[in-house]
Design brief:
9 strands; minor pseudopilin epsh fold; disordered C terminus; alpha+beta; 4-stranded antiparallel beta sheet
């Protein structure tokens, strides 16, 4: 018994169309993943800098000696210069971790860089800047921007002992009034107090 011959095969045009669709989907997903990695690196760097600022203030108050955070724009590094923390402040297991994290220069990820900063309204974009934390918890008014591609995060360190905060957008000028940054959601519209 003979079966009828049928030609069920894909044409070259159909194979090309499917290949193009798969290639476009892969390209879009790779670009999306790359953008997410940049944003994660940027947010992580901003969070690390915020932790450093908070720890510096804590250390200055508790040890009753000033601390200085150094930001090197040219090498994309940062570190803490402080007197030795009193033994009662840090558990012996925690001390090496703190010294490794903060007192040795730490480099930002390759895709992240310091963009600009202002300390007490004085702008900086090159060299090494120093943010001083006094033993009463006060410091200079500091606004610092870090960037990755088109994304910019702003780090705000207000004087008078308020906690440093991270905004996920560019803020060009420090607020004129003291604002408790922990109590508000920072947006471009509500950041400036009138």
């Amino acid at each position: 018994m003979k079966y009828p011959k049928t030609n069920y095969a894909f044409t070259t045009v159909e194979i090309i169309i499917v290949t193009v669709i798969i290639a476009l989907t892969a390209m879009i997903s790779v670009v999306s993943i790359y953008r997410n990695v940049e944003q994660v690196n940027l947010n992580s760097s901003g969070t690390d800098l915020i932790r450093l600022m908070r720890f510096s203030r804590f250390l200055a108050v508790e040890s009753q000696s000033s601390c200085t955070v150094h930001i090197d724009f040219d090498n994309n590094t940062y570190w803490l210069q402080a007197a030795e923390a009193p033994a009662q402040l840090l558990d012996e297991k925690l001390r090496p971790t703190i010294e490794n994290l903060y007192q040795r220069p730490r480099k930002l990820p390759e895709s992240v860089s310091f963009l600009k900063a202002s300390i007490d309204e004085q702008p900086y974009s090159r060299g090494i800047i120093k943010i001083n934390f006094n033993r009463d918890g006060s410091n200079q008014q500091t606004l610092m921007q870090i960037c990755s591609g088109d994304n910019i995060n702003t780090i705000l360190v207000a004087p008078d002992g308020l906690k440093p905060r991270l905004a996920n957008h560019a803020i060009e000028k420090s607020p004129n009034h003291t604002v408790d940054l922990d109590e508000i959601s920072i947006t471009a519209d509500n950041f400036f107090v009138k």
